[in-house]
Amino acid sequence: MLKNIFISMFCLITMSILFGCNEQSPVAGGILIDDSTYVTVLSSDSVPFLKTATGFNTKPSASYLNSLFIGSSKGFQASILARFGNIPDSLAGSEILSATLRLQPERYVFGDSVANRLAFSVYSVNKLWAPDATIDTLNQNGFIDSKSIANYDGIIPLKDTMSSISIDIEKSFISQWFTTKSNTKSDSLIYGIALIPTMNSTVIRAFARNTISSPEKSPVLLQVLYKKSGSQTIDSVLLISAYDGCFVKSPLQNDGSIVLDCASGQVSELGFNLNTVPKNVSIHGAVLTLQVNVSQCITGNRPKDTVITANFVDSSTANILREYYAVSSSTSTEYTFSVLNSVIEGILRRGTNGILKILPYVDRDRNRVDRLVFYGPNDPDPTKRPKLKIVYSNRPKP
């Protein structure tokens, strides 16, 4: 009897061991273990994945920014173009008593907010322009008149609610508009002004812009007081800008840092060299972390944005494959692209070298002039360089 019990227990234990050895591993790592796959982690701390960071200017169009910026500070210059569309055709020969330009300031200020001095001149525009105009359009010879028709130099206090500012415009300028409109029935006439910063400015200020997404904002206005020929009655007409454009010029910083200018279009390309990653591997993870160089950042009075973006471009077709996002907290100096798997796979399919374009988060950064600077891959301090970690697997040869 005892012998039979011993034999039964021995068989039960043996069967348990056999069946136990054939059980699948837990889901998280079962496939890798059962498939005899080797998992490798490579980091830029030990492998020079990242080559160089190169800055360049994308020269955004007049329709890029949500706000209008005017002024100069810290090497940045912001200019405005305004084109008016409701010029009356019945006021030729009227006596112009006054012409006043009105702008509605917003609370954003970039630069020396203590001195808070804004200075710019107003010029007549001589050439027709469209929303796809760039800063090169503004810089054309003869694009604006050589003589200013108004000047502003003053301080706009920072308040939660601010009144519009008023600037007297040369009256003869308006008379020319009225005469031209009366004599020429054309939709291609210019009727534009340019606001160009002067050297006295210590700040760049934001002003309201009338856009499709924010029609409640006040556009650029020209209020004209006049008397018709032979009349003693003083009348007024309010000329409303039909379209406003803004261009920001910034000093190019190309010292190997990763530089992002929210308004001027200066962005950076980060070069990858993945020749240490074997061919035909499976990429399980790729994480890129950038560290902010706080000493070189230049920001206005709005909190920093906690999101930046990146584009990986297929060099063989010049097509953007997809957009990636890096996130930071409001108090952190690190921005992390947590899922760059497809970037690494895309580079390896085309060779070993590739480029990632680092960009501001366009949906939120178009209402500021700020410059965000990250340490580059060749920074003297290796602890501050961008960090790239790649997790991949491959099967060993039989």
Give the biggest beta sheet. 11 strands, antiparallel
Report the principal-axis shape. Answer: elongated
Question: What pattern of helices and strands is seen along the backbone?
Answer: HHEEEEEEEHEEHEEEEEEEEEEHEHEE
Mean pLDDT across every amino acid position: 86
Rounded to an integer, what's the Rg over CA atoms? 31 Å
Provide the low-confidence segments as ranges.
9-33
Distance between the termini: 51 Å
Counting DSSP E segments of at least 2 residues, the number of strands comes to 22
SS content category: mainly beta
Provide an overview of this structure.
There is one protein chain. With 398 residues, this protein is mainly beta. The protein contains six helices and 22 strands. The strands form three sheets. Strands 3, 4, 5, 6, 7, 8, 9, 10, 11, 12 and 13 form an eleven-stranded antiparallel β-sheet that branches. Strands 1-22-16-19-18-17-20-15-2 form a nine-stranded antiparallel β-sheet. Strands 14-21 form a two-stranded antiparallel ribbon. A hairpin with a 2-residue loop joins strand 3 and strand 4. It starts with a helix and ends with a strand.
Task: Looking at this protein, list some descriptive labels.
398 residues; mainly beta; eleven-stranded antiparallel sheet; nine-stranded antiparallel sheet; 22 strands; 42% strand
Task: Compose a concise summary of this entry.
The chain is mostly beta strands and 398 residues long. 15% of the residues lie in helices and 42% in strands. A hairpin with a 6-residue loop joins strand 18 and strand 19.
How are the SSEs ordered, and which strands pair?
Blueprint: H1 2-21, H2 27-34, E1 38-43, E2 50-57, E3 68-73, E4 76-84, E5 95-103, E6 105-111, E7 117-125, H3 135-138, E8 144-155, E9 165-168, H4 171-183, E10 192-197, E11 203-207, E12 221-227, E13 235-249, E14 258-261, E15 266-273, E16 282-291, E17 307-314, E18 319-327, E19 334-337, H5 341-350, E20 353-360, H6 362-365, E21 371-374, E22 387-394
Antiparallel strand pairs: 1-22, 2-15, 3-4, 3-11, 4-10, 4-13, 5-9, 5-12, 6-11, 7-8, 7-10, 12-13, 14-21, 15-20, 16-19, 16-22, 17-18, 17-20, 18-19
